[in-house]
Amino acid sequence: MAAEIFVHPQALVESVEIGAGTRVWAFAHVMAGAIVGADCNIGDHAFVESGATIGDRVTIKNGVMVWNGVTIEDDVLFAANVFIADGTHGMARGDVAYKYQGIERVAPVHIERGAWIGQNVMLMPGVRIGAFAVVGANSVVRDDVPGSCVAVGTPARVIRRWDAGTERWLAVEQAPRPGSNA
Ligand SMILES: CC(C)(COP(=O)(O)OP(=O)(O)OC[C@H]1O[C@@H](n2cnc3c(N)ncnc32)[C@H](O)[C@@H]1OP(=O)(O)O)[C@@H](O)C(=O)NCCC(=O)NCCS
């Protein structure tokens, strides 16, 4: 028998596309039209918007907002308070909209399977995080992160890559930052 879905009495789940065994905790909101796979864990105060797609065995810790168009593949972990940006400029509205015409675009992020996103990370519009990548806490990810790498900092840079031959994480040589004396 398939495991039941658990929805905390204080959670708001409007989607009918939630996989078996998924748990949604207090004050989380999953909108109609969001797709959530099986055996996921969605923490307190998380928000999953219509049009977001979440795979199986995904952990979304407390306070994470997953917007329309975001894709999160299987076995991904989001630590608490990861932020996902999707609109590139965000101000193309109201009286100042004309200034941003042709600039503003919506560019959802995509997280490949098995990736691990540390606490407080900021994912900028349109970035893709490769399979089994690790993003260190508090990083601001501006560029795509390749699979099986560790990226940290602002902007996030790859500091380690997984070597399948030796089955070890190897350090990645850092190029000096533009303008630095290093
Ligand atoms: C990314 C991470 C996994 C790397 O761990 P590690 O492989 O043990 O790396 P180290 O501690 O040896 O650090 C390697 C280098 O990266 C730097 N670094 C590590 N994490 C960093 C981060 N989050 N931001 C900026 N720099 C970081 C270190 O300062 C060090 O730099 P140095 O070589 O110039 O001294 C870890 O630092 C991290 O951020 N973990 C996430 C914690 C978290 O969010 N937990 C939530 C749990 S649900």
Keywords summarizing the entry:
single chain, 182 residues, mainly beta, UDP N-Acetylglucosamine Acyltransferase, domain 1, ten-stranded mixed sheet, five-stranded parallel sheet, 2% helix, 29% strand, flat, binds coenzyme A
Structure, briefly:
This protein is mostly beta strands and 182 residues long. It contains 1 helix and 22 strands.
Task: Set out the fold topology.
Elements: E1 6-7, E2 12-13, E3 23-24, E4 29-30, E5 35-36, E6 41-42, E7 47-48, E8 53-54, E9 59-60, E10 65-66, E11 71-72, E12 77-78, E13 83-84, H1 97-100, E14 110-111, E15 116-117, E16 122-123, E17 128-129, E18 134-135, E19 140-141, E20 149-152, E21 157-163, E22 168-171
Parallel strand pairs: 1-3, 2-4, 3-6, 4-7, 5-8, 6-9, 7-10, 8-11, 9-12, 11-14, 12-15, 13-16, 14-17, 15-18, 16-19, 18-20
Antiparallel strand pairs: 20-21, 21-22
Bound molecules: coenzyme A (COA).
Coenzyme A is lined by residues 79, 118-119, 134, 136-139, 150, 152-153, 159.
- Spatial gap, N to C terminus: 61 Å
Q: Ligands bound here?
A: coenzyme A
- The CATH homologous superfamily corresponds to Hexapeptide repeat proteins
Radius of gyration computed on alpha carbons: 18 Å
Largest sheet: 10 strands, mixed
Oligomer state equals: single chain
Would you identify the CATH architecture? 3 Solenoid
- What is the ordering of alpha helices and beta strands? EEEEEEEEEEEEEHEEEEEEEEE
Q: What is the overall silhouette?
A: flat
CATH topology: UDP N-Acetylglucosamine Acyltransferase, domain 1
| Overall CATH class | Mainly Beta
**Domain module count:** 1
What strand line-up does the widest sheet have?
A: 1-3-6-9-12-15-18-20-21-22
- Average of per-residue pLDDT values: 92
Query: What are the segments in which pLDDT stays under 50 over at least 5 consecutive residues?
Result: none
Q: What is the total tally of β strands?
A: 22
